[in-house]
User: What shape does this take?
Amino acid sequence: MSAKHAGRWSRNTVSPTVFRHGIYRFYFFSREEVRPHVHVASPQGEAKFWLDPEIALCRKHGLTARQVSVIWRLIVEHESEIRKAWQTYFGG
Assistant: This one.
């Protein structure tokens, strides 16, 4: 299943979607810390991954190890897109 990329978002959007892949939504939460990271939500649960200094799982809830592995792979595959979206949305 291919990724669906989000269009432009408003700076007023609290949790802009970067892209979707199947049941997973990859997004930012704008009123949080400044360290680059991405949130992922699915019907089964959610996770937060750091982008710096390297991609790493910060926390998860309700997801299996297999789901986390799939999500991690997707973040690696879309890393440049996620980082570019972060810079566009948050500046820097």
